[in-house]
């Protein structure tokens, strides 16, 4: 099938200036770009007064967990995305065995409110996708949590030499199959209990295949530089591999001082010859499973009993205070840090619960959109906040997704976004249950960038913004034939109305498609047209080549 896109304004993804031209697609490839193109047997798409760009590439996404249940992936297709990099934050659909399945259904599926159809390995995942069909392209990174769970489940002990060799062999096989690298989630189990030396040994395998080591770092708050970024740079250096910072952000009370220091650390690494890149999410709030960041691994081994037993509840609360202290209080003003800990433990609960909102949950959906404080007061009346908090997480089976404003757009986000080696990303995860709310990032990340940071605030040019959503993530991932509109490249194309593109999702109702996306073409076939998904299942699991 041939498609001829006529009269459009092409923004080719390279960062170069836009130009008026036609674009001809034959099969799954772009075969010609130029003026006044003709093809008698082609379907004509009139793109007059529209922007024609490469399909958007989301370099940080969790769609692998639900793609087999939601093969049309409408939320991302309808915002112009054509490729998603998945397997992020150290957990994903592959690899797995019986131990991983037990681990996932005790931890990941409980917390994320999804029940992934786990695959034995990447080839198994590819086979299932090829048999079923999906609408979008997937670039898969091997999750370090899965690799570790193959051997340890939720165990916390350090790996010995033989166990590291086992994990390296698994990783090597997945890289041979076509994985684009390895991801870690070092604030979540089991990444949180994995030492740096073990990560270096795995990252060496990634380096052998010119893949990327992609990390949700161990600390994004008070220890961003000394712990999180320093560890990532050390791994890149000692493993001789490219490293990528997932959803880079400065979550600090001293954001004005910390942001330039974080940038300088990467610039110094570049001068040393290291290849360090990053992505940032484009919303000022963090979205994360509450229990995943609050509880240590052992809690999930007997979740309901541990959250009901008075002795284990006390231990959980003690450990929880240590986590909160490390994340939020370590760089607090001196006067706060001088407050005795027994007093901090009392005042922490009202302060914390009044700042965090419940985005979604699987059981009592009435609390969606409420502050945790208000939900605890209404549904657990008369209880201490700390005790009610544990009851809530037990009753919702851990599946509470929270949102918390943690970033300053002007002082912490935009200085990072404008750097030439930083892309935009969604960090989205789609849930199957239609009763559960979703964050608007799942539906509007890329339109938001164009609407807010290009059209309204004039932070960067449209050409630069498109580059950060197309050719830059393709270059970082190592995708050689996508991310640009060039002759011979795969025909992943989005056509949109620059003047009217906008996101519509809100925190109260995230499940709203954006406006202004006219066409989405994936591997040469029209997948969405004028606000409607056509049901086309022409996506692929892409394979990385060394």
Poorly predicted runs: none
Question: What is the third-level CATH name, the topology of the largest domain?
Answer: TIM Barrel
Instruction: Return the CATH class of the largest domain.
Output: Alpha Beta
- Count of spatially separate domains: 2
Q: Per the principal axes of the C-alpha atoms, what is the gross shape?
A: globular
Q: What's the CATH architecture name of the largest domain?
A: Alpha-Beta Barrel
Instruction: Report the major sheet.
Output: 9 strands, mixed
As a whole number of angstroms, the C-alpha radius of gyration is 23 Å
The total count of strands amounts to 21
Please report the number of helical segments.
20
CATH homology superfamily of the largest domain: Metal-dependent hydrolases
- Determine the mean pLDDT: 92
Distance between the termini: 31 Å
Summed up, what is this model?
This protein is α/β, with parallel strands linked by helices and 546 residues long.
Can you characterise this structure?
The protein is an alpha/beta fold. The protein folds into two domains: 56-284 and 406-479, Alpha-Beta Barrel (TIM Barrel); 290-404, no CATH class. Strands 1, 2, 3, 4, 5, 18, 19, 20 and 21 form a nine-stranded mixed beta sheet that branches. A six-stranded parallel beta sheet has the order 9-10-11-12-13-17, sandwiched between helices. Helix 2 (98-106) packs across helix 5 and helix 7 (196-208) packs across helix 8.
Give the topology, please.
Blueprint lengths: L1 E9 L8 E8 L2 E6 L8 E4 L4 E4 L1 E3 L15 H4 L3 E6 L11 H9 L1 H5 L9 H11 L4 E4 L1 E2 H9 L8 H17 L3 E5 L10 H13 L3 E5 L7 H16 L2 E4 L9 H17 L4 E6 L3 E5 H5 L8 H4 L3 H20 L4 H4 L3 H13 L3 E4 L11 H8 L5 H11 L5 E5 L3 H9 L4 E4 L15 H16 L5 H8 L1 H7 L15 E4 L20 E6 L2 E5 L2 E2 L13
Parallel strand pairs: 1-4, 1-5, 6-7, 7-8, 9-10, 10-11, 11-12, 12-13, 13-17
Antiparallel strand pairs: 1-2, 2-3, 5-18, 14-16, 15-16, 18-19, 19-20, 20-21
Helix pairs in contact: 2-5, 5-6, 6-7, 7-8, 8-9, 9-17, 15-16, 18-19
């Amino acid at each position: 099938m041939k498609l001829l896109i006529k009269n459009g304004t092409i923004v080719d993804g390279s960062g170069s200036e836009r130009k008026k031209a036609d674009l001809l697609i034959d099969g799954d490839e772009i075969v010609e770009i130029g003026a006044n193109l003709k093809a008698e047997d082609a379907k004509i798409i009139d793109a007059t007064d529209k922007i024609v760009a490469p399909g958007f590439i989301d370099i940080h996404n969790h769609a692998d967990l639900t793609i087999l249940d939601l093969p049309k992936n409408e939320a991302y297709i309808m915002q112009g995305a054509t490729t998603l990099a998945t397997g992020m934050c150290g957990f994903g659909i592959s690899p797995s065995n019986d131990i991983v399945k037990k681990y996932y259904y005790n931890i990941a599926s409980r917390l994320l409110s999804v029940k992934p159809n786990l695959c034995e390995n990447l080839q198994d995942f590819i086979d299932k996708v090829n048999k079923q069909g999906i609408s979008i392209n997937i670039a898969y990174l091997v999750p370090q949590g899965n690799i570790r769970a193959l051997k340890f489940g939720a165990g916390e002990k350090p790996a010995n030499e033989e166990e590291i060799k086992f994990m390296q062999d698994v990783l090597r096989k997945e890289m041979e199959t076509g994985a684009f690298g390895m991801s870690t989630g070092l604030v979540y189990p089991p990444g949180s209990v994995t030492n740096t030396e073990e990560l270096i040994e795995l990252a060496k395998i990634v380096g052998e295949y010119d893949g990327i080591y992609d990390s949700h770092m161990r600390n994004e708050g008070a220890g961003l530089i000394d712990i999180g970024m320093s560890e990532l740079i050390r791994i890149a250096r000692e493993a001789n591999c490219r490293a990528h910072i997932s959803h880079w952000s400065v979550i600090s009370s001293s954001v004005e001082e910390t942001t330039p220091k974080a940038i300088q650390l990467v610039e110094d690494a570049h001068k040393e010859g290291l290849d360090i890149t990053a992505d940032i999410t484009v919303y000022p709030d963090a979205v994360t499973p509450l229990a995943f960041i609050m509880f240590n691994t052992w809690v999930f081994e007997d979740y309901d009993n541990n959250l009901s037993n008075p002795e284990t509840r006390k231990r959980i609360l003690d450990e929880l205070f240590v986590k909160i202290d490390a994340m939020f209080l370590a760089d607090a003003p001196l006067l706060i840090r001088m407050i005795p800990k027994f007093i901090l433990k009392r005042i922490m609960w009202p302060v914390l619960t009044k700042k965090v909102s419940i985005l979604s949950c699987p059981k009592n959906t009435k609390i969606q959109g409420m502050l945790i404080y208000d939900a605890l007061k209404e549904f657990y009346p008369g209880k201490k906040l700390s005790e009610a908090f544990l009851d809530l997480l037990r009753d919702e089976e851990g599946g509470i997704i929270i949102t918390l404003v943690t970033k300053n757009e002007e002082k912490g986000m935009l200085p990072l976004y404008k750097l030439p080696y930083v892309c935009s990303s969604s960090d989205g995860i789609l849930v199957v249950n239609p009763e559960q709310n979703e964050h608007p990032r799942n539906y509007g990340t890329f339109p938001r960038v164009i609407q807010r940071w290009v059209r309204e605030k004039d932070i960067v040019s449209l050409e630069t913004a498109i580059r950060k959503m197309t050719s830059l993530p393709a270059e970082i991932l190592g995708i050689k034939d996508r991310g640009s509109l060039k002759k011979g490249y795969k025909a992943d194309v989005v056509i949109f109305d620059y003047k009217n593109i906008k996101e519509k999702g809100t925190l109260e109702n995230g499940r709203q498609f954006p406006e202004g996306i006219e066409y989405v073409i994936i591997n040469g076939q029209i997948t969405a047209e004028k606000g409607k998904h056509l049901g086309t299942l022409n996506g692929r699991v892409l394979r990385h080549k060394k």
